Structures are given as structure tokens and as C-alpha cells.
Amino acid sequence: MNPTPPRIAIIGAGPGGLTCARVLQRRGVPVTVFDRDASADARPQGGTLDLHLTTGQAALHAAGLHDEFTALARPEGQQMRLLDHAGTVLFAHHPAPDEHARPEIDRGQLRRLLLRSLAPETVRWGHYLRTLHPLGDGRHRAEFDGGHTETFDLVIGADGAWSRVRPLLSDATPHYSGVTFVEFGLDDVDNRHPELARLVGDGSMMAPFANRALIAQRNSNGHIRGYAAFRGSEDWTLDAGVRMADTEAVRAVLLDTFAGWDEGLLALLRENDGGFLNRPLFALPVPHTWTHTPGLTLLGDAAHLMTPFSGMGANLAMLDGAELAEALAGHDGRDSALRAYEAAMLPRSAEAAEGAARGLANAIAPDAPQGSLRHVRRMAEQAERTGQEGP
Prior knowledge:
This protein has helices spanning 15-26, 56-62, 66-72, 107-116, 189-192, 194-200, 236-240, 247-257, 263-270, 301-304, 313-330, 334-363, 370-386; strands at residues 8-11, 32-34, 48-50, 80-83, 89-93, 104-106, 123-124, 129-136, 139-144, 149-152, 154-157, 175-186, 204-209, 212-218, 224-231, 277-283, 296-298. The protein is of the alpha/beta class. Strands 5-4-13-14-15-12-16 form a seven-stranded mixed beta sheet, sandwiched between helices. A five-stranded parallel beta sheet has the order 7-2-1-11-17, covered by helices on one side. A hairpin with a 2-residue loop joins strand 13 and strand 14. Helix 11 (313-330) runs antiparallel to helix 12 (334-363) and helix 12 packs across helix 13 (370-386). The N and C termini lie far apart (54 Å).
């Protein structure tokens, strides 16, 4: 008789969790994904992602979805410009016609691609994990909001920065990095904001200076998503006496924070459509490790939350998911599969998190933009030598 397949739960329907579910199903392993959102479209999914050849794209190959990704991706989004606060272009990268090292895709597009690849009813929406109860032999009883409970042989925490699975493995909690992003957006930029469309170009633009930066990225459908970044208190709105809902008051504080900058750059803050969103940056300690525990593991931000200055967060989450799924499908025992996965993932993520910390220190720094300029030049030189990924 065939043995009963293990009951596997993935907590969190982000890129990493969905990639893991897709690869498991592709290998004939049943899995259920639980997510706290009421539906797939319950909230915006954020901006754009550059998926790297050896991480995010490798995961999509394992998922059998790379061709579909290529049809949606924007290779022109690899364009990158570094400016100073006076608007002078210090560095520019223009991708070659055949360059596909880091094409961009909107987060929402990527999520829909992954969701559509799964068997019907794989994702159970509106399931917020309250707690896990160990039952022995690696089994855990999951208790969800509303009192619903289910028992699983393996629970994979893909539930992000404030993971409900992580506390069973680690005492670590995310700490405030000292840097806040204030998000803004501009719509139909080629028609309504043509000068800003030219400023940002087809990819991304960053202007760092003296512990501050203005960052903008082209998304699909003529949208630009931007961030005003600065060092300061996590409670900067309280210190400034403003509420995030008061768009004009927040705008005034930001314009004062970036006073003296080029007016073309400040137009990002003057002309944004809609309001502002507060995005303080958090990170887990580096390295973040845990003692192997049967029946539990983590991937993505739950395992290695880092600031976005490595460009590796979603890429690593997807690679985590693909490699974990392949390990589970390819090993005789779940425990040996988890050990093999964690042995590869933990050092890899520590290296990336260290890089993210350095990137943050270089970009939002007293001597900026010098650190960022050194970084992009070093990456460009390395790409020229190796013929691989550019800035």
C-alpha cells in the first residue's frame, strides 16, 4: 500500500510561498497555502521586482513558468540612473538589447502568474495563523483566527517580516534600521508628468545625498512608484506633528527635509498622485539562524528579512521556495530534506543580508552619493569581467 502523503502547510501566499507550492505540486506533492488576506486582490501588492538569473529566474525555471514570466517582464526596466541632489547624472546603465540578467516585473503580475499555476483551492484565503501547538514527531496543530484548527506534518513559515511561525524556531525579532521610506506614486506619467517620466526613464532612478535619497522606479501601465528615504526616528510623524492621512502636511515636511534639492527632483514630491505611505525599514539580526526543529522551517522574509538595498529579498524567497520544494520531493525523509535546505539557505541569506546592510549604509549616508557611486561602478566592472549581471 502507498503511504499516506504528509500534510504540508505553507503559511503566507507571497512569492516564496507560492513558488514553493508550485514546485511541490509539479513534483506530485500535495500542499495547502494559508494567507490572512481575504482574497488575492484584497490589497495592492507593491511595486516592481528585478528577478535575477541565478535566483528568481532560476526558481521560475524550476516552477516551469519562465516562458510566461518572459512574456510579462520588462527588460528595459534594467535601466538605472544615479544622480546627485543637484540633478547631475553620475552614472547610467542602459541595458543591451539582449540583456536579461535582471528584467523587471510588477509584484502583482508575478503573484497572478504564480497563483494561476496552482491547482484550484490550493490557497485558503482569510486564514490568519494565531499559533502553532507542537504535538511531537514533528507534527503541529495550527490554530487560525476564529478557532479553526488543523494538524500538519510540516509547517513552512513564508509569512513575512512578522512571521507567526518564526517564534517557534527563533527568539529574533525585526529591528528598525534607522531609515524610513515614504512611498508616493504618479500615474499615466508619459502624458501627465512627462518631465518626471524622462527623469526616471524606463527603469529606476536614485538620488542620494547626506542621509537622504529620492528613489523612483518605472512600473507597468505608465506608473512610477517612488520613495523619499531618510534617517530618523521611527516615530518621525509624531516628532513632526503630522498624520500620514494629511497629505499636504506630510508633503510640506518632506519638502522641508529635502530643501535645496534640484526642483526637477522635488517635483516627485510636489506632483505625486494620491497620498503618502509610511514604510519604515526593518531587518532581522545577521546572521539569523535557528536550531533545526523537525516539522518546521522558514523561507523568505520570515527567515532573513533585510532592507531592499541588496535587491535580493524576493529573489531569495523564490529560490528558497523552489529549493525547499525540490529537497522535500527528492529526499526519502522530511527531516533530512529540511536539514539539506537549511544548510544551503542560511549561509546564503546571511551573505545577502550583510550586503543589504552595506548597501543601506552606503546609500543613506553622510557622504552620499559617494558610497553608492563606488558600489554601482564596482558592480559594472564585475559584470564586464564576468559577462553576468549588471548594476
